[in-house]
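Lecture 7, part 2: worked example. A protein chain together with 5-amino-5-deoxy-1-O-phosphono-D-mannitol.
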Amino acid sequence: EKGGYDYFMLKEIAEQPKAVADTLLGRIDVAGSLTLDEIRIPAEVLREATKVVIVACGTAFHAGLIAKYAIEHWTRIPCEVELASEFRYRDPILDERTLVIAISQSGETMDTLMAVRHAREQGARVLAICNTNGSTIPRESDAVLYTHAGPEVAVASTKAFLTQLVACYLVALYLGQVRGTQAGDEIRAVIRDLAEISTAVERVLETMEPVRELARSLAAKNTVLFLGRHVGYPVALEGALKLKELAYMHAEGFAAGELKHGPIALIDEDLPVVVVVPSPRGHSVLHDKIVSNIQEIRARGARTIVIAEEGDETVSPYADHLIRIPVTPALLQPLVATVPLQVFACELATARGNEVDQPRNLAKSVTVE
Ligand code: M6R
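Predicted complex, written out as structure tokens:
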């Protein structure tokens, strides 16, 4: 049932182009607009929402962090993202005009479920983004947008994450469409790009052999740092989480702009530092800032592993290892940038002799608080 792969995780990584395409299927009409009738929250409620609050745990939380950039940019609705386990213990401010989005692969995560219950008690509308039909979180929410990743068996989430991102983009674009924001042209253009994005994911998967080799060469390291900016920051957090749970290595994700506020003290000879570089077209200022971060890290002797768009030559002189990803609209970059980090963590786990599908101490769904 592993379909010829050694681990479910490898199979699930390989299934990502299909999972992404399936999650888009039937949701973009021939005219290029979104039809999300399954969101049974009436359009006027969506139009009048004054705030979006996203609650989730672990990898799903990272999808939520990325969603915030998309929602605020395309809809101009303020959006907060919170770990479900923190959310309800802090007496959050919610009302009938708050749209809460609960993201959960399993639909059974207790912390997220408790956050959903709390939000509904306060009168907020709750939309679940979930991969498991008929599970508890969608049943207790006002509406659900299912991700169509298919069953995810490996404890480390991969294809569910990519489809959570797709679902988040769909919700963000749909909110923009329903509310008729100024980003209308951009929204239509991004919908077209999203419709093609599974091909880009497939292309990344075809170029992963050097990433595997690199991972094997780092098997004896103790620490790996991950840096990113904008939507690349949650990608860095996700890369670090994957490495912790699979390779049992110390790994941390940082916002690259924070480097000089502390983390740069950690940089020393031969420390592997993975840097996710934003698109030079989408974010030229951020791009240039991150290139100087890479220079600073390299000047201190660290080993730089750079994930950058095809055609971005400015990074080449400072990269000890360069991982290329296809050109995408800036906000969609996590769909391609995350994939090498999944492969990297999986290969490192294998090289260190760890159990890939069932990492120690972890359960696939955490049904206790
Ligand atoms: O089923 P959920 O999406 O609610 O699960 C949330 C987290 O427990 C989950 O993403 C966890 O962090 C994964 N093991 C990460 O790979």
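The first strand starts at residue 51 and ends at 56. The longest helix spans residues 159-179. Keep this in mind for problem set question 3.
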